[in-house]
Amino acid sequence: MDNHLYTVAQVRAIEEAACAGLPPGTLMRRAGDAAARFALELLGERRDKPVLVLAGPGNNGGDALEVAANLADSGVDATVLFQPGQREISDEAQSAHERARSGTVGFIDMLPPSGDWGLVVDGLFGIGLARPIEGDYREMVEAVNAMRCPVLALDVPSGLDADTGAVIGPGGVAVRATHTITFLGDKSGLHTLDGRDSAGHVRVEMLGVSPELLPPPSARLGTAELFAHRLAARRHNSHKGSFGDVAVLGGAHGMAGAPVLAARGALYGGAGRVFVAMLDSGPGYDSVQPELMFRTADGFDFTGRTLVIGPGMGDSAGAMRLLARALDSDSPLLVDADAINLIGASPDLLARLAGRGAPSVLTPHPLEAARLLGQSTGVIQADRLAAAREIALRTRATVILKGSGSVIAQPDGALVINPTGNAGLATAGSGDVLAGICGALLAQAWPAGEAAIGAAWIHGAAADLLVAHGIGPIGMTAGELPAAARAVLNLLVAEVS
Ligand SMILES: NC(=O)C1=CN([C@@H]2O[C@H](COP(=O)(O)OP(=O)(O)OC[C@H]3O[C@@H](n4cnc5c(N)ncnc54)[C@H](OP(=O)(O)O)[C@@H]3O)[C@@H](O)[C@H]2O)[C@@H](O)CC1
Ligand SMILES: Nc1ncnc2c1ncn2[C@@H]1O[C@H](COP(=O)(O)OP(=O)(O)O)[C@@H](O)[C@H]1O
Ligand SMILES: [K+]
């Protein structure tokens, strides 16, 4: 399947199983062939420009040498930068060396001070990188990152942890590629945390390995197919009651903006009726969005309503009581922002959440996730997939761990990484809009897992649509997201209808 993600350990096992039935060096040659074709595509009309190929001491370097030999065979001026390592190289990599050295490939052992490269191929380190990149290799990575030409990473951008998307540290560096061709299965680390910046566009090359050799994936990349079956054209004979009520609970004194943004997200996400139940007396109505109905939270009836709790809620005793009441209710529930922090500080509230029968979704950003798990943000970000899964297991809720490449974890441990969105979303209030969109999908009877995957995808796609129209990433505002999300939703519905 196109969206399957594997761990490094799984890729090693796939490689071993595949090698067993093949003559030595076959996979490396196939990797070199596929990557050279990709390199030629990237060069396009600029085939007369020289290509710099960085070859490391292991098999990633072997792939690079195969690429260089293939490019030279195609008439491209290819130069390999290679420094021998301490260890003996593998037989496959040795053959690749011999092949490259017997042709027209040029070899250098240090980077020239300047060079007008048409493309750089990064074959320094792949899934075998075991410690931070230092010394001469570090200088090479830094020099490549300062270049303006396209950079094609082989398998994994050198320096990146292919499982977690973290730069291997402490104090490490990673190549920032424009493109990555990854072998024998896509890898989670290319799609979350630093992965998206480092890997650029990812192409998966299975090297002819039979699908029967593939294990069940450790995670999936989010796609519209994962939730498309929930999208349906609206029946003519429908009314506002057909699409559910969302009530956003929050809005302590001076913090009315956050619940209003969430409520707009819910309205444009298709909920039939949207309420904002404020802890303190807030605005009587939203003049931009007069469709929203304002209530006071005290005594507000939850029956038959999907609840989005937390935006701008604060941590007062009243907030805590409201949260306890929401957790104990039978309503589908989305828990965000201050409500997450309150649960992190209270084993009692955590137990109420874990004991819920109705659908529950939690949308922590990394700091909120850290508070929930009693860890530092650094620990959460060092392995976002593990953190999201741990929260889902502890809370028995669906979790969206937000950030670049949001990780959606289900209580049964299943993981999805959301591929949509961009840095324009790094603006105050965009998380509130996500909470509202997810609330709207829950209110339209989507199961929690699909609502979370769908909301993250639609929210990110809305930001991508805004960027495509010149609205961001710089200066994109959260208030612009709901209408863009509506456009994405209607496009999706039109596609499946
Ligand atoms: N085998 C196959 O069939 C296929 C393999 N494939 C390819 O192989 C790649 C995996 O190859 P790999 O296992 O050799 O690891 P790789 O990423 O080259 O790095 C390990 C080398 O780096 C060294 N080293 C590590 N850290 C270091 C550091 N910080 N600074 C300096 N040195 C450091 C380490 O030596 P060490 O010093 O640790 O003893 C070792 O020499 C994979 O990503 C894919 O591209 C594909 O062709 C498909 C078929
Ligand atoms: N670089 C990025 N790429 C993709 N999505 C991002 C990026 N930065 C932030 N986001 C998304 O933007 C939202 C930010 O939410 P959050 O951190 O709660 O902010 P706020 O509390 O201000 O609303 C999340 O959905 C997050 O996944
Ligand atoms: K690499």
TrEMBL record:
Q: What quaternary arrangement does the UniProt entry report?
A: Homotetramer.
Q: Which residues bind AMP?
A: 402-406, 431
Primary role = Catalyzes the dehydration of the S-form of NAD(P)HX at the expense of ADP, which is converted to AMP. Together with NAD(P)HX epimerase, which catalyzes the epimerization of the S- and R-forms, the enzyme allows the repair of both epimers of NAD(P)HX, a damaged form of NAD(P)H that is a result of enzymatic or heat-dependent hydration. Bifunctional enzyme that catalyzes the epimerization of the S- and R-forms of NAD(P)HX and the dehydration of the S-form of NAD(P)HX at the expense of ADP, which is converted to AMP. This allows the repair of both epimers of NAD(P)HX, a damaged form of NAD(P)H that is a result of enzymatic or heat-dependent hydration.
Q: Where is the YjeF C-terminal domain?
A: 223-492
Gene3D superfamilies named among the record's database cross-references: 3.40.1190.20, YjeF N-terminal domain (3.40.50.10260)
Spell out the InterPro entries in the cross-references. Answer: CARKD, Nnr, Ribokinase-like, YjeF_N_dom, YjeF_N_dom_sf
Q: Which family does it belong to?
A: In the C-terminal section; belongs to the NnrD/CARKD family.
Which cofactors? Answer: Mg(2+); K(+)
**Occurrences of domain YjeF N-terminal (ranges):** 11-215
Highest taxon in the source lineage: Bacteria
Where (6S)-NADPHX is bound, by residue?
A: 59-63, 126-132, 137, 155, 258, 312, 365, 432
List ligand-binding residues for K(+). Answer: 60, 122, 158
> What Pfam families does this protein's entry cite?
Carb_kinase, YjeF_N
Which source organism? Massilia agri
Reaction catalysed by this chain?
(6S)-NADHX + ADP = AMP + phosphate + NADH + H(+); (6R)-NADPHX = (6S)-NADPHX; (6S)-NADPHX + ADP = AMP + phosphate + NADPH + H(+); (6R)-NADHX = (6S)-NADHX
Q: What is this protein called?
A: Bifunctional NAD(P)H-hydrate repair enzyme
Which EC numbers characterise this protein's activity in its record?
Answer: 4.2.1.136, 5.1.99.6
Entry keyword NADP: yes
- Which UniProt key words apply to this protein? ATP-binding, Isomerase, Lyase, Metal-binding, Multifunctional enzyme, NAD, NADP, Nucleotide-binding, Potassium
How are cofactors bound according to the entry's free-text note? Binds 1 potassium ion per subunit.
